[in-house]
């Protein structure tokens, strides 16, 4: 102990031994503060983990949804789409953000993605319609130059595909392209709602429309996914 430390102790009227005890108490106090800081850091990290799913849910970009007739049923469908967009991370599966709700229309993707009120009582099926029409945008925006080549290869793979409604859409080229759309739809649904529910939706829709198209994809998944990889078709 040097002279300065000795004088500091004398100035306080305490012996050096008491000063050492005070220094020790100070060190203990600093340790307590550090422990509290660590605990607060852990609490903050835990809170961040709890919020993480909420942050994931917020990844869907804002959708520009317009109502064609401004009817109550169209308002309900818009609310349903917005709720699904908040519940699921649809960022990967949203190529166009511009959507029209039209209770009198047939679902279609171009020139503006348009949804009717079909399957309004079942979220999984409504979600399937959303990703189905967005899948058309994947092909339209990223692979338009390969359409002819892809159709010819699919025709060689499935030469007996029925294209007349309700088995196809009535047109040869678009029916074959729908095989790709349905495969993309399947992949998106599996990611969003799980394999079991996704397959259940496709099996249900197979009984409604595009019967041969859904059956072909469901029965030839490995071959269809190989085709998608060949042409680098993906979400």
Describe the protein in words.
This protein is mainly alpha-helical. It is globular. It has a three-stranded parallel beta sheet with strand order 1-2-3. The protein starts with a helix and ends in a 5-residue tail after the last helix. Helix 3 links the parallel strand 1 and strand 2. Helix 4 packs across helix 6, helix 6 runs antiparallel to helix 7 and helix 7 runs antiparallel to helix 8. It is built from nine helices and three strands, in the order ααβαββαααααα. The N terminus is likely disordered.
Overall form: globular
Roughly what fraction of the amino acids lie in strands? under 5%
Biggest sheet statistics: 3 strands, parallel
- Helix/strand-derived category reads mainly alpha
Return Rg in Å. Answer: 31 Å
Question: Which strand order spans the largest sheet, edge to edge or round the barrel?
Answer: 1-2-3
Q: Which series of helices and strands comes N to C?
A: HHEHEEHHHHHH
Low-confidence stretches: 1-15, 44-58
Indicate the percent of residues in helices. 55-70%
Number of strands: 3
End-to-end distance: 72 Å
């Amino acid at each position: 102990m040097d002279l300065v430390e000795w004088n500091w102790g004398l100035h306080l009227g305490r012996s050096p031994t008491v000063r050492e005890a005070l220094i020790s108490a100070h060190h203990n106090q600093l340790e307590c503060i550090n422990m509290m800081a660590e605990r607060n850091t852990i609490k903050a990290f835990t809170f961040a983990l709890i919020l993480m799913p909420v942050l994931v849910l917020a990844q869907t970009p804002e959708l520009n949804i317009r109502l064609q007739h401004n009817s109550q049923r169209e308002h309900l469908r818009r609310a349903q789409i917005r709720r699904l967009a908040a519940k699921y991370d649809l960022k990967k599966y949203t190529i166009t953000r511009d959507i029209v709700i039209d209770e009198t229309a047939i679902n279609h993707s171009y020139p503006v993605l348009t949804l009717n009120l079909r399957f309004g009582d079942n979220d999984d099926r409504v979600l399937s319609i959303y990703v189905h029409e967005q899948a058309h945008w994947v092909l339209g925006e990223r692979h338009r130059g390969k359409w002819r080549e892809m159709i010819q290869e699919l025709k060689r793979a499935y030469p007996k595909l029925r294209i007349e409604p309700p088995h196809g859409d009535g047109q040869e080229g678009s029916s074959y392209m729908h095989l790709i759309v349905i495969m993309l739809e399947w992949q998106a649904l599996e990611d969003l709602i799980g394999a079991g529910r996704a397959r259940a939706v496709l099996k249900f829709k197979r009984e409604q429309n595009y019967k041969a198209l859904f059956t072909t994809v469901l029965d030839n998944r490995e071959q269809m996914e190989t085709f998608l990889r060949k042409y680098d078709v993906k979400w």
